[in-house]
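<instruction>
Derive structure tokens from the sequence

<record> Sequence and structure tokens follow
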Amino acid sequence: MTIQQPQLNSWIKKFPLLSDIIDLKPIVWLNPQLQKIANMQQLAVDIKDMEHAELLWRRFAPYLAAVFPETAEAEGIVESPLREIPEMKKQLIDHWNEEIEGRLYLKCDNELPIAGSIKARGGVYEVLHHAEKLAIEAGLLIKGESYKQFLSEPFRNFFSRYSIGVGSTGNLGLSIGIISAKLGFQVSVYMSADAKQWKKELLREKGATVVEFEGDFSEAISVGRKETLEKPDAYFVDDEKSKHLFLGYSVAAFRLKQQLEDEHIQVDSEHPLYVYLPCGVGGAPGGIAFGLRQVFGDSVHCFFVEPTHSPAVLVGLITGEKHKVSVQDFGIDNITEGDGLAVGRPSSFASGISEKTVSGIYTLEDQDLFKLLALLADSERIFVEPSATAGLLGPLKIQTTKYAETHRLPTAAATHIVWATGGALVPKEEMDEFYQRGKAYLGG
């Protein structure tokens, strides 16, 4: 939609926070549309869909363990560790001169097998879902048979007749490209201008075709969708509309529940769980937030994080227009070094659900991403890409609001989880450059 000035003025009058967003100031927004789990009816997906998604992951586990050695120890389950980061907590307190109550953890999707980022959850899942459907329809796969058959030449030859396409800023493209090529599909990744060169080169090494654009994510996904669907026997993984991506991400909630139990961490009304999720188009954080709300109910409080220059989900939810508006409609340039977060328009599928499940959104400036990256590396020896650090300011940002007071939440017994979304595949020289920039911003 094209926003006329009278409409923009009306929104700014109704939602004054938009003025600061348009002026690129870091803000914190609490969602007035947040619903109690008991009132969350008639969503596009439910917990039964999540359970079916988890079963698909388990069916493919023998195949994944065979073709991706890094998953063998976990018997083909694609999961990341949960780590307490007390030294980083001290750094946050020291540098921002604010106390943080409760314990601070990092969900290390920067170490997630196969693609080294959160996108392995959704991207790999959707391709596996598509492959299973094709194999069953063709009579290649019979219910109850071992999925190790997907390793065989007959299966690879069969999939080579089919094409898969995806539009990406980088990490989703890696996950789709890697698993699709491994199965034998012809795969094309349409990448926006902000996508890193090393990701393009890695995809080509893995057997994917990379199509580059000078525009942003919206152009890449629009052209990618059109060109893919013009091919016979082609399938487009649509980050703006995909139910299957969303469900792939949601399964993380089941896994996190088990990890918290293993650590003897309680989650209930007296022991609230806060989760901070970097947000691009909104599918990954939306899927995880939905899953967490299904598993932990009203005891979990999910917050998205966006760059000040790419607050796509934020403007969509504040105005209520969701995917009908883009950041460019508000004169915001959508230029950020938060790889994966440079998205101008939110997911149409995820936004309608996140409107009810997410507790709020905060924005931050790019230089904070690099500062946090350097602090995390120095304090915990954990290296992530810049966008993956966005959630680390979450506890400090949210405690500046009256969220805990309004919801009558105890603070000392809280558990804070920062979702680290990517970084394992970043080349060392690039990571060193990120680190040096962070140290420079810190004055070190």
In short: The mean pLDDT is 95. Residues 84 and 105 are 4 Å apart (CA to CA). The longest strand covers residues 300-307. The two ends are 46 Å apart (CA to CA).
